[in-house]
């Protein structure tokens, strides 16, 4: 299900940009009041598009959001889009309720990405096609670090005494970073094992 590449209404954009608790250049403080309840049908509409979403659950309340990134519109600015975290509550007709927070990224009037957290469960668009496991997040970091240092797969494989297929699997996220392999990779990258272990999401218990 694709949640991005859709046009946001002016009312939704105004609600997403309503940050009464934030002082930043370019916004009146305090800002003029905005009706943030227009976000309720927007969030519910997006969630309803998840085929497995329980239609009995709906976003009941939302609060003004907090900006995570701000696109000021200035050429060469640090952010290419605006991303906002909007807290709230979801509830069912049976009276159950859970905390809710949405992370919404948009450029102009175009939705770029959407992620929701219901209770302690994160919902968002997948990277891999339907029916396939999501890649391990270490893959993107490892690929970037190798590319920045100009380390080819063949060299990484040789220096870690691993097959090239293993390194390719790591770079694609289809192989989990094992503690011993992380130690060998750190040496080739010229980084501390502790730093790479943290990046790979390994804690002390997994290392033992």
What does this structure look like?
The protein is of the alpha+beta class and 208 residues long. It folds into two domains: 114 residues, no CATH class; 63 residues, lambda repressor-like DNA-binding domains (434 Repressor (Amino-terminal Domain)). Helix content is 33%, strand content 20%. The chain has eight helices and six strands. Strands 1, 2, 3, 4, 5 and 6 form a six-stranded antiparallel β-sheet that branches. A hairpin with a 2-residue loop joins β5 and β6. α4 crosses α5 and α6 crosses α7. The longest helix is centred in the last third of the chain and has 12 residues. It is elongated, with a radius of gyration of 21 Å. It starts with 9 loop residues before the first helix and ends with a helix. The model has no long low-confidence stretch (mean pLDDT 88). InterPro entries: Lambda_DNA-bd_dom_sf (IPR010982). This is XRE family transcriptional regulator. One of its GO terms (molecular function) is DNA binding.
Protein topology:
Layout: H1 10-16, H2 39-48, E1 58-62, E2 66-69, E3 82-91, E4 97-107, E5 110-118, E6 121-123, H3 138-149, H4 153-160, H5 164-172, H6 179-189, H7 193-199, H8 204-207
Antiparallel strand pairs: 1-3, 2-3, 3-4, 4-5, 5-6
Helix pairs in contact: 4-5, 6-7
Features:
alpha+beta; 434 Repressor (Amino-terminal Domain); 208 residues; Lambda_DNA-bd_dom_sf; six-stranded antiparallel beta sheet
Question: What share of the residues does DSSP label as strand, in percent?
Answer: 15-25%
Q: Unreliable runs, pLDDT <50, ≥5 residues?
A: none
Counting helices, strands and paired strands, the structural category is alpha+beta
Overall residue-averaged pLDDT value: 88
Described by strand count, sense and barrel closure, the largest sheet is: 6 strands, antiparallel
Helical proportion? 25-40%
What order do the helices and strands follow? HHEEEEEEHHHHHH
The tally of structural domains comes to 2
Distance between the termini: 39 Å
Overall strand count: 6
Shape: elongated
Annotation field: number of helices = 8
Radius of gyration: 21 Å
Protein name: XRE family transcriptional regulator
InterPro entries: Lambda_DNA-bd_dom_sf (IPR010982)
GO molecular function: DNA binding
């Amino acid at each position: 299900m694709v949640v991005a590449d859709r046009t946001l209404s002016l009312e939704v954009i105004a609600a997403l940009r309503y940050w009464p608790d934030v002082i930043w250049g370019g916004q009146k403080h305090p800002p003029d009041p905005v009706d943030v309840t227009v976000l309720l049908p927007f969030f519910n509409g997006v969630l309803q598009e998840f085929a497995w979403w329980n239609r009995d659950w709906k976003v009941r309340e939302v609060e003004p959001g907090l900006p995570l990134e701000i696109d000021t519109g200035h050429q060469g600015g640090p952010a290419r889009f605006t991303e906002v975290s909007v807290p709230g509550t979801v509830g069912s007709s049976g009276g159950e309720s859970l905390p809710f927070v949405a992370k919404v990224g948009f450029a102009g009037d175009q939705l770029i990405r959407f992620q929701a957290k219901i209770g302690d469960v994160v919902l968002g668009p997948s990277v891999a096609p339907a029916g396939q496991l999501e890649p391990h997040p270490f893959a993107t970091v490892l690929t970037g670090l190798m590319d920045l240092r100009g380390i080819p797969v063949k060299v990484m494989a040789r220096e870690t005494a691993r097959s090239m297929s293993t390194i390719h699997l790591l770079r694609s996220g289809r192989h989990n970073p094992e503690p011993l392999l992380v130690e060998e990779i750190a040496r080739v990258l010229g980084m501390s094992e502790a730093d790479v272990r943290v990046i790979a999401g390994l804690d002390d218990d997994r290392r033992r």
